[in-house]
Each structure stands twice: as structure tokens, then as C-alpha cells.
Design a protein that fits this description.
The structure is a single chain. With 175 residues, this protein is mostly helical. Helices cover 61% and strands 9% of the residues. Strands 2-1-3 form a three-stranded antiparallel beta sheet. Helix 2 packs antiparallel against helix 6 and helix 3 packs antiparallel against helix 4.
Length: 175
């Protein structure tokens, strides 16, 4: 009888431990795609002046999205297109796709991918950067999948929700 109880107890502990390990593996699997996207971003070396121009235009896009202003966002995207060289094909393509949208929510939907590309560019060219850049994250963006953006200010101003959730987010990294 004691052996039966001990066996059942051991089986229960093993089952619980295995289910926790599986949940942990599933959580890692869910987080991996976001990390892989950043790792796959195409980058090249960039001059300090070009990086400054790209970042300035990118920050203007972010600010326009914070203000929920599609017209301002399209204008900033046009300037970003001008400042991005042909060697940054993915950034150029994403910027063009966003620029072709009319609705601010449609423009916002492409901002996460653009942010990943610009983040990779900044990381790969850290020595060319002459200003602080903050990687900020909102866990509620895109139906709680979460998304990040870059900012030239430490203060959170969320481009994914604008004034609806202006301060939703946190600084993840200082570049």
C-alpha cells in the first residue's frame, strides 16, 4: 500500500515537472521569433552623418505616430526615404510600404518591422552614433504580442497607441 502511494506521488511530481518544463519551452519558443527578426535584419556600415540623418527621420516618424498624425507621419516617412541609401533595401522597402498607407493605424502596423531594422543598424554601427538612443517596449502592442521602438528621449511616448496609452512601455536598453 505504501509503495502504491509513493509510486503515485512520484508519478504526480514527474508529471507536474514535465508540464512545467513544456510550458517553459513554449514560452521560449514564443519569444524567439521577435529575437530572430532582429537578428535577421539586414545592415551595412553607415557614416556618422547618414546614421544621424536616418535616426532623425525615424524619430520624426515615431513622434508623428505618438501624435496620431498620419499626414505628419507620411511627411517624416518621405524624409526617411530620402536619407536611406540604396544599401538599406529592407529599410527603404518598409518605409515605402508605410508611406503608401493613408490611415495612421495602417502606418503603425509597419512601425515594428521598421524599428527592428533601424535597431539592427544602430547596433551594428554603434561607433558612428553620436547620441543616446533608447530601445523602448510596449507589452500591449499588437494584441499583447508586444513591440519595441527607438527613441532619442528616455521618457516613454508610445507610438503604437498615441494618446490612448501615451506612457505605456519601458526602456529596455540604452544604445
Amino acid at each position: 500500500m505504501k509503495k502504491g502511494i509513493v509510486s503515485l506521488l512520484a508519478l504526480a511530481v514527474l508529471t507536474f515537472a514535465c508540464s512545467q518544463e513544456k510550458k517553459s519551452e513554449e514560452k521560449v519558443a514564443e519569444e524567439t521569433p521577435q529575437e530572430e527578426k532582429v537578428m535577421q535584419a539586414s545592415t551595412s556600415e553607415v557614416s556618422s552623418e547618414q546614421l544621424k540623418s536616418i535616426l532623425s527621420s525615424y524619430f520624426n516618424v515615431k513622434d508623428a505616430l505618438v501624435n496620431t498624425d498620419a499626414k505628419e507621419a507620411k511627411s517624416a516617412l518621405a524624409k526617411l526615404l530620402e536619407s536611406v541609401g540604396s544599401e538599406f533595401e529592407q529599410i527603404k522597402s518598409l518605409t515605402k510600404e508605410m508611406h503608401d498607407q493613408e490611415d495612421v493605424e495602417e502606418i503603425r502596423s509597419g512601425f515594428d518591422d521598421l524599428s527592428q531594422e533601424v535597431y539592427a543598424l544602430v547596433k551594428d554601427n554603434a561607433e558612428s552614433k553620436d547620441q543616446k538612443v533608447y530601445k523602448q517596449f510596449c507589452p500591449m502592442a499588437f494584441n499583447n504580442e508586444g513591440a519595441f521602438w527607438l527613441s532619442d528621449k528616455e521618457e516613454i511616448r508610445n507610438p503604437y497607441f498615441g494618446d490612448k496609452m501615451l506612457k505605456c512601455g519601458k526602456v529596455q536598453e540604452e544604445l
